[in-house]
Inverse folding.
């Protein structure tokens, strides 16, 4: 058994395969029995330097269901940070009041730095465009739950593969499990070569497509992401490509029975509402899985499981 | 005076210290900066546009009463990959070393990502060298990888 006590989670590469599996196993226990007062005497600081209601509520309900007291802020406007207090000083202060810190920040590298300053362990709930490792953990949990295994799967990633940080982390993590990757994106939003390097180094295969239709039948997982208009300098380019990365119920005809559609949410128009009622839709359960995975992380890092 | 003589004079004129030879002419001042010699209180002699058989023109720096750790010297490999270090004791060459690009680079570089925490708060930068030819580094904090190197002011 691995020991995750006091181990920060800043980047998905901070944990290894054994540690992912440990967390996922624990998450399954919490899904069975989500209300356990194991953190009764613990204080969880939840500090969101930029608003992210979805992630914050998921963390805070995870902590509350385990009986922890949650302190912090949802928006720094009302705190001393708005008066110009440095991240360094804010973290120093908070780590003397709490047993673990969950932090979201708009600046890349803020989480790594805060963890170095903090005297208590820290979980990164997103640092700018850099990392969002708990999203990746809940993606892994969702894949494991729907497929029964993480090994040897056909993973199709669709949409903005260039800027989508959840996609980059998921590729990196799934490289531990002998996955084959199917990459569907507009040419301008292809997976960066630095991320492809992970696939090559793991001696795994990837295939690139410009339309989702070509990848549906081989997929175990279709992981959808948003293609944002802002990524295109010419709005016409956006109009041209946006339809190649969206799905509706008819797109999924001919898929394998075990195939499930994931999405980090919120969605725009890339998944039509008629997919919601197919057996393939899993994105709402996926979001709910976030609570169990975050319970597992907090409990493991505090050394209580 | 021939080139050889000129170089011999520069080297032999030092009693104790270090000579850094074969620096590209354009990066001599950067080397001074990287080694912290702009604040050094003893004698530092700088030669620029000296003739070099191998490199055409070169720069040279002579520092009196100063010896460097290999760790510090390796930092100059970023701007002077072919530099030679000559350690002088009692007017004699006691050691010649070359420089190597280190695996980690602390403090001297600046992250090119404007939204990196190192550009927002007073933090010493740290980079991991992920490729040596061509040079590619990754920021320890924001995790961006970059090929263009910028020095901290
Ligand atoms: Zn950086």
């Amino acid at each position: 058994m691995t020991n995750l006590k006091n181990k920060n989670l800043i980047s998905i590469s901070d944990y290894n395969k054994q540690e992912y599996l440990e967390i996922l196993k624990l998450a399954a226990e919490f899904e069975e029995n989500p209300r356990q007062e194991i953190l009764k005497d613990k204080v969880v600081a939840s500090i969101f330097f930029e608003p992210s209601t979805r992630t914050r509520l998921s963390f805070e309900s995870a902590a509350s269901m385990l009986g922890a007291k949650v302190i912090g802020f949802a928006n720094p406007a009302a705190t001393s940070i708005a008066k110009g207090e440095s991240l360094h000083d804010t973290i120093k202060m908070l780590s003397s009041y709490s047993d673990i810190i969950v932090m979201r920040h708009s600046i890349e590298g803020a989480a790594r730095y805060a963890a170095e300053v903090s005297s208590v362990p820290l979980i990164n709930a997103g640092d700018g465009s850099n990392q969002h490792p708990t999203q990746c953990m809940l993606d892994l949990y969702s894949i494991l739950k729907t497929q029964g295994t993480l090994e040897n799967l056909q993973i199709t990633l669709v949409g903005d593969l260039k800027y989508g940080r959840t996609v980059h982390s998921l590729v990196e993590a799934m490289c531990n499990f002998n996955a084959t990757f199917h990459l569907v994106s507009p040419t301008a939003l292809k997976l960066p070569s630095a991320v492809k390097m992970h696939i090559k180094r793991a001696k795994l295969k990837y295939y690139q497509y410009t339309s989702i239709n070509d990848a549906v039948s081989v997929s175990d997982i279709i992981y959808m992401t948003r293609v944002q208009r802002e990524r295109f300098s010419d709005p016409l380019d956006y109009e041209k490509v946006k339809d190649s990365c969206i799905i509706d119920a008819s797109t999924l005809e001919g898929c394998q029975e075990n195939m499930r559609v994931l999405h980090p949410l919120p969605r725009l128009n890339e998944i039509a509402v008629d997919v919601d009622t197919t057996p393939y839709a899993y994105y709402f359960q996926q979001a709910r899985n976030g609570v169990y995975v975050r319970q597992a992380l907090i409990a493991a890092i505090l050394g209580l499981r | 005076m021939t080139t050889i003589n000129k170089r011999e004079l520069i080297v032999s004129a030092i009693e104790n210290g270090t000579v850094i030879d074969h620096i590209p002419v354009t990066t001599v001042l950067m080397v001074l900066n990287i080694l912290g010699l702009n604040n050094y209180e003893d004698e530092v002699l700088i030669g620029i546009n000296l003739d070099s058989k191998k490199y055409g023109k070169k720069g040279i720096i002579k520092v009196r009463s100063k010896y460097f750790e290999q760790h510090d010297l390796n930092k100059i490999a970023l701007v002077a990959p072919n530099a030679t270090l000559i350690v002088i004791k009692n007017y004699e060459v006691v050691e010649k070393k070359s420089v190597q690009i280190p695996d980690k680079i602390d403090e001297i570089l600046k992250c090119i990502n404007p939204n990196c925490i190192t550009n927002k708060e007073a933090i010493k930068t740290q980079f991991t060298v992920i490729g040596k030819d061509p040079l590619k580094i990754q920021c320890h904090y924001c995790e961006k990888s970059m090929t263009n190197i910028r020095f901290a002011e």
The interface with chain A takes residues 111, 113, 115-118, 120-121, 123, 139-145 of chain B (CB under 8 Å). The CA atoms of residues 102 and 143 of chain B lie 18 Å apart. The pocket of zinc ion is lined by residues A 109; B 111, 113, 116, 118, 139, 141-142, 144 (CB under 6 Å). The mean pLDDT of chain B is 88.
